[in-house]
Design a protein that fits this description.
Elements lengths: L4 E4 L2 E7 L9 E7 L4 E6 L12 H4 L2 H4 L9 E3 L8 E3 L2 H19 L4 E5 L6 H14 L3 E3 L5 H11 L15 E5 L3 H4 L1 H14 L2 E6 L11 E4 L5 H15 L4 H7 L3 H8 L4 H8 L3 H13 L3 E5 L9 H15 L8 E3 L11 H4 L10 E3 L3 H5 L14 E5 L3 H4 L3 H8 L5 E6 L11 E4 L8 E4 L5 E5 L12 H11 L12 H11 L5 H7 L1 E3 L4 H4 L59 E4 L15 H7 L3 E4 L1 H7 L6 E6 L2 E9 L7 E3 L35 E7 L4
Parallel strand pairs: 7-15, 8-14, 9-10, 9-12, 10-11, 12-13, 15-16, 16-17, 21-25, 22-24
Antiparallel strand pairs: 1-2, 2-3, 3-4, 5-6, 5-17, 18-19, 19-20, 21-26, 22-25, 23-24, 23-26
Helix pairs in contact: 3-18, 4-18, 5-13, 8-11, 8-12, 8-13, 11-12
Length: 708
């Protein structure tokens, strides 16, 4: 069983999975003391992807579980919103008040006035997605999730027709690993495990492509620092070199691609000189990259999320994936392009999320536009009534969502009721009416799947939670009872029953199998992973010429939203398109909000060690820019654009190129000098063609603060 492996008389090892929003979904071995307390956390050595390695922040998870500031009792707001005055109440009273608020909102404005809101604070399918079942049963406003994967998944699917690729463990068998747009040392440490193994065992070269000299760059044999939003130009130049110098696999393309002749003609003007002017790379760097991957059949393109969080992000992903087809890299073990395996698992989650109860006439609201929605923007509301009641689980929108000033303004509305189910008093919980304490991952049962790999992993309850905290599923079930829908399909089941039914209805072994075996490798065949039977389109051809508005994709908006953003500007073939926020005289800098090593979005921002290691909110500034602005490290600077302004400390560093600013980590708003975080500066306009939030794509001005 998952919890029964002994180590010595006073403790045991429990087996589970990391619940956080990371593609690695690491298999974990956790020491449990004789008193039932969580101890050391290690990566499972017998899991072939985790391979015994996890990130430092998860290794010290006990610091989070036993944090003195963890929420322990339900709370009701006493004074004004955001004033910090609370009183403890019982669970029954808290749930009664939430249900009553939902009933009143529906009576006044209809069921769409209630908007259940969630995301990926846990990636466990049961505790994350059960809120959808309540939504559909009650016909509450729908939820289009756009903050994370949209541009990346859209771009890859436009190329291949499916969200799958070569097994990422094949990186260890590659002769060249290209880590593109992901700071893997910080965000996906297991990518480095397999890439470095390839270097040690095969002499493989590691190429890293990113926008600044981050920790992953330190591992590179070839480090390419591009300007934000210009990755497609580099991809086009690499393919130009392949056609020009004979690296292109014409026989492969003839069989597997839609229009290689058209692509070759298109790329004749996409020279290294053209790309150098756009990307900021030298011609020599581009030529070196093109030659390296052209001469290396086993080149594995590990394509991340970071480079797609631009307004041309889908185009960038499509262009990067196209390289593997021009070179024919898909044919080889250790070759091809990989972004996510999220399309291989094929869970039947219809009962879990209540999909059969979904009413297509109910409006769907864009997650990233919460600020516009809560401040009454007619288009964001789909020209229907207001949102006046919310239940929020697994996310912290007052901190992590774009257009933060609008988000806060919306939450401060007197006519808006908000219940937040959380571990800590986050920026969002601070603005709530009712706050509920939530269990953490070792305190409940759940099941996980690894988009960055191929395992389905069980996460069983390993320790007893505090008596006064409750699971996400408990809250959904109790609200369903109070709202009169607990007799609908999917309600009334335990976590273990839900997991078992979902697995068996998907044609897989049930809960007991996973309890005995810890995980199930759902990996597909080499032929399917490498598309040797053709790509997932009717003609089995890779799309150099994507259909940007009609291609089926997991990220495609519902019909009620339609195609989004300036999709008319998307290119016929892989190309650089300047849909990004270009600098101008008033806004001479580009700002990216990159991940911090010791945080995961807004999680771990409360733990002592993570805070000590990260220090404080800072912005990285190139020395030349700092000198021109009279800025020294430690000075307070103000960054601003049309959305607002933020003050934080400058850190002068040659890790960023001139004209680029990097703010690492999503710090709590309250940790910033004025109580406003970096997402004041990010935009929520919808990205073409299937939506998304371009959080790394911002033009700003910067001045030294006179008081700093």
């Amino acid at each position: 069983m998952n919890i029964a492996t002994p180590i010595h008389a006073k403790s045991r090892i429990g087996h589970t999975a990391c619940p956080h929003d990371c593609p690695s979904t690491c298999a974990l071995d956790i020491e449990i003391s004789a008193e039932g307390r969580m101890g050391r956390v290690r990566g499972a050595e017998d899991n072939s992807y985790t391979a015994g390695v996890i990130c430092a922040k998860v290794a010290r998870y006990a610091e989070r579980l036993y944090h003195p500031d963890r929420l322990m009792m339900p709370k009701r707001r006493k004074g004004a919103k955001g004033a910090g005055s609370w009183q403890e109440i019982g669970w029954q009273d808290a749930l009664d008040e939430i249900a009553d608020a939902f009933v009143k909102a529906e009576a006044k404005h209809g069921s769409e006035a209630v908007w259940p809101y969630y995301y990926a604070g846990t990636m466990g399918l049961v505790q994350r997605d059960s809120i959808e079942r309540l939504r559909h049963a009650k016909k509450y406003s729908g939820f289009f999730d756009t903050i994370c994967v949209n541009m990346a998944w859209t771009g890859f699917t436009m190329a291949t027709g499916a969200l799958r690729g070569p097994d990422p463990r094949e990186m260890a068998k590659s002769d060249c690993v290209v880590i593109w747009g992901t700071n893997a040392v910080v965000t996906q440490v297991n990518v480095m495990t397999h890439a470095i193994r390839a270097r040690k065992e095969r002499g493989a070269k590691i190429v890293v492509i990113d926008i600044y000299d981050n920790p992953t760059m330190k591992q590179a044999d070839l480090a390419l620092v591009v300007r934000p939003g210009t990755d497609a130009a580099l991809a086009c130049a690499a393919m130009h070199i392949a056609f020009r110098d004979g690296y292109a696999d014409r026989a492969y393309m003839e069989k597997y691609a839609d229009d290689p002749a058209g692509l070759e003609e298109h790329l004749k003007t996409r020279t290294p000189e053209w790309a150098a002017a756009i990307t900021g790379l030298s011609v020599e760097e581009i030529e070196t990259f093109g030659r390296l991957i052209g001469e290396t059949k086993r080149s594995f393109l590990r394509l991340g999320y970071g480079f797609t969080r631009q307004r041309n992000g889908s185009v960038a992903m499509h262009a990067a994936a196209s390289i593997a087809t021009v070179l024919g890299s898909w044919q080889y073990e250790g070759g091809g392009a990989f972004h996510s395996n999220s399309g291989i698992f094929k869970f039947d989650n219809s009962e879990l999320v209540g999909s059969r109860m979904r009413d297509r006439e109910i409006r769907v609201l864009d997650q990233s536009q919460i600020g516009r929605i809560l401040t009454g923007d007619a288009e964001a509301l789909r020209h229907r009534g207001p949102v006046t009641a919310m239940l929020i689980q697994n996310t912290n929108p007052a901190c992590v969502m774009p257009e933060q000033r609008l988000v806060r303004q919306g939450f401060m509305r007197d006519d808006l009721f908000v219940a937040v189910h959380e571990h800590f008093m986050t920026d969002t919980a601070d603005l709530a009416d009712i706050v509920l304490p939530a269990t953490m991952f070792v305190e409940h049962d759940d099941i996980y799947r690894g988009g960055g790999q191929s395992h389905i992993l069980l996460g069983p309850k390993l320790v007893e939670p505090p008596e006064t905290v409750r699971t996400n599923l408990f809250v959904i079930e109790e609200l369903a009872k109070r709202l009169g829908v607990d007799d609908r399909p999917g309600f009334g089941l335990t976590e273990r029953e839900i997991i078992d039914r979902m697995l068996t209805s998907s044609g897989r072994p049930g809960f007991d199998y996973l309890a005995d075996n810890k995980w199930l490798d759902a990996g597909i065949s080499f032929e399917e992973a490498h598309y040797l039977d053709g790509f997932n389109f009717p003609d089995r051809k890779f799309r150099f010429r994507p259909d940007w508005v009609n291609t089926p994709a997991a990220t495609r908006p519902p019909r009620s939203l339609g195609t989004l953003g300036p999709y008319e500007a998307l290119p016929e073939f892989p190309d650089h398109v300047e849909l990004i926020e270009l600098t101008d005289e008033e806004h001479p800098f580009r700002l990216a909000t990159s991940p911090a090593r010791n945080f995961l979005n807004s999680s771990f921002t409360e733990t002592k060690t993570s805070i000590q290691k990260e220090g404080r909110p800072e912005v990285l500034v190139n020395p030349a820019d700092a000198e021109a602005k009279g800025i020294a490290s430690g000075d307070i600077v103000t960054l601003g654009n049309r959305r607002g302004s933020v003050r934080l400390h400058a850190k002068v560093s040659d890790t960023v190129k001139p004209g680029l600013l990097i703010a690492e980590g999503i710090w709590p708003n309250k940790k910033h000098l004025d109580g406003e975080g970096i997402n004041v500066l990010t935009g929520a306009d919808q990205v073409a063609p299937y939506g998304g939030a371009a959080v790394h794509d911002n033009k700003v001005w910067m001045v030294r603060d006179a008081a700093g």
